[in-house]
Specification:
Family: Belongs to the YjdM family.
Helix content: under 10%
Organism: Peribacillus psychrosaccharolyticus (Bacillus psychrosaccharolyticus)
InterPro entries: YjdM, YjdM_C, YjdM_N
Number of strands: 11
Strand content: 25-35%
Shape: elongated
Structural class: mainly beta
Order of helices and strands: EEEEEEEEEEE
Protein name: Alkylphosphonate utilization protein
Radius of gyration: 17 Å
Protein backbone atom coordinates (compact mmCIF):
# COMPACT_ATOMS: atom_id res chain seq x y z
CA UNK A 1 0.00 0.00 0.00
CA UNK A 2 1.37 3.40 -1.00
CA UNK A 3 2.08 5.94 1.73
CA UNK A 4 -0.20 8.98 1.34
CA UNK A 5 1.17 12.48 2.06
CA UNK A 6 0.12 14.53 5.07
CA UNK A 7 -2.49 17.25 4.65
CA UNK A 8 -0.81 20.47 3.45
CA UNK A 9 -3.15 22.63 5.57
CA UNK A 10 -3.22 20.93 8.98
CA UNK A 11 -0.47 18.26 8.63
CA UNK A 12 -2.88 15.45 9.51
CA UNK A 13 -1.57 11.99 8.70
CA UNK A 14 -5.06 10.54 8.17
CA UNK A 15 -5.52 11.54 4.52
CA UNK A 16 -7.36 9.25 2.12
CA UNK A 17 -7.98 8.98 -1.62
CA UNK A 18 -11.36 9.83 -3.13
CA UNK A 19 -11.15 9.26 -6.87
CA UNK A 20 -8.46 11.61 -8.19
CA UNK A 21 -8.41 13.71 -5.00
CA UNK A 22 -6.78 13.38 -1.61
CA UNK A 23 -9.01 14.36 1.34
CA UNK A 24 -8.22 15.30 4.92
CA UNK A 25 -10.95 14.12 7.34
CA UNK A 26 -9.83 16.56 10.06
CA UNK A 27 -9.97 19.90 8.18
CA UNK A 28 -11.94 18.80 5.05
CA UNK A 29 -9.21 20.07 2.72
CA UNK A 30 -9.17 18.45 -0.75
CA UNK A 31 -6.33 18.57 -3.26
CA UNK A 32 -5.22 16.75 -6.39
CA UNK A 33 -2.65 14.00 -6.13
CA UNK A 34 0.85 15.36 -6.72
CA UNK A 35 0.09 19.00 -5.86
CA UNK A 36 0.44 21.14 -2.75
CA UNK A 37 3.12 18.99 -1.17
CA UNK A 38 4.94 21.89 0.49
CA UNK A 39 3.39 24.93 -1.17
CA UNK A 40 2.28 26.59 2.06
CA UNK A 41 3.53 30.10 2.57
CA UNK A 42 6.20 30.55 5.20
CA UNK A 43 4.84 32.66 8.04
CA UNK A 44 7.36 34.69 10.01
CA UNK A 45 7.18 36.68 13.24
CA UNK A 46 8.20 40.31 13.66
CA UNK A 47 11.90 39.34 13.93
CA UNK A 48 11.85 37.14 10.82
CA UNK A 49 11.80 33.79 12.65
CA UNK A 50 9.76 31.06 10.94
CA UNK A 51 6.63 30.12 12.87
CA UNK A 52 5.29 26.56 13.08
CA UNK A 53 2.10 25.03 14.44
CA UNK A 54 2.39 24.54 18.19
CA UNK A 55 4.93 27.32 18.78
CA UNK A 56 4.65 29.71 21.71
CA UNK A 57 4.73 33.45 20.98
CA UNK A 58 4.60 36.77 22.83
CA UNK A 59 2.51 39.78 21.78
CA UNK A 60 4.82 42.74 21.07
CA UNK A 61 2.35 45.64 21.46
CA UNK A 62 -1.02 46.38 23.04
CA UNK A 63 -3.79 45.19 20.73
CA UNK A 64 -7.43 46.26 20.90
CA UNK A 65 -9.89 43.37 20.78
CA UNK A 66 -12.41 44.00 18.02
CA UNK A 67 -15.98 44.19 19.32
CA UNK A 68 -14.88 44.58 22.92
CA UNK A 69 -13.43 47.22 25.22
CA UNK A 70 -10.66 44.80 26.24
CA UNK A 71 -7.00 45.12 25.30
CA UNK A 72 -4.39 42.38 24.86
CA UNK A 73 -1.36 43.70 26.72
CA UNK A 74 2.18 43.70 25.37
CA UNK A 75 4.07 40.67 26.70
CA UNK A 76 1.04 38.35 26.79
CA UNK A 77 2.23 34.80 26.14
CA UNK A 78 0.29 32.63 23.71
CA UNK A 79 0.91 28.87 23.66
CA UNK A 80 0.18 26.32 20.94
CA UNK A 81 -0.55 28.57 17.98
CA UNK A 82 -2.05 27.21 14.76
CA UNK A 83 -1.11 28.73 11.42
CA UNK A 84 -3.91 29.45 8.95
CA UNK A 85 -4.22 31.27 5.64
CA UNK A 86 -5.65 34.76 5.49
CA UNK A 87 -4.99 38.25 6.79
CA UNK A 88 -4.97 37.11 10.42
CA UNK A 89 -2.72 34.06 10.01
CA UNK A 90 -2.53 32.76 13.60
CA UNK A 91 -5.37 30.98 15.43
CA UNK A 92 -4.90 30.61 19.18
CA UNK A 93 -6.56 30.55 22.58
CA UNK A 94 -5.55 33.21 25.07
CA UNK A 95 -6.23 32.73 28.78
CA UNK A 96 -8.94 35.16 29.88
CA UNK A 97 -9.96 36.04 26.30
CA UNK A 98 -10.69 32.75 24.54
CA UNK A 99 -10.23 32.00 20.84
CA UNK A 100 -8.46 34.74 18.90
CA UNK A 101 -6.96 35.40 15.49
CA UNK A 102 -3.69 37.33 15.39
CA UNK A 103 -1.45 38.76 12.70
CA UNK A 104 2.08 37.37 12.70
CA UNK A 105 3.54 40.88 12.50
CA UNK A 106 2.43 41.55 16.10
CA UNK A 107 4.08 38.51 17.74
CA UNK A 108 7.56 37.22 18.38
CA UNK A 109 8.58 33.61 18.88
CA UNK A 110 9.62 32.58 22.39
Amino acid sequence: MAELPECPKCSSEYTYEDGSLLVCPECSHEWKIGTETEEQAIIKDTNGNKLNDGDAVTIIKDLKVKGSSSVLKMGTKVKSIRLVEGDHNIDCKIDGFGAMKLKSEFVKKI
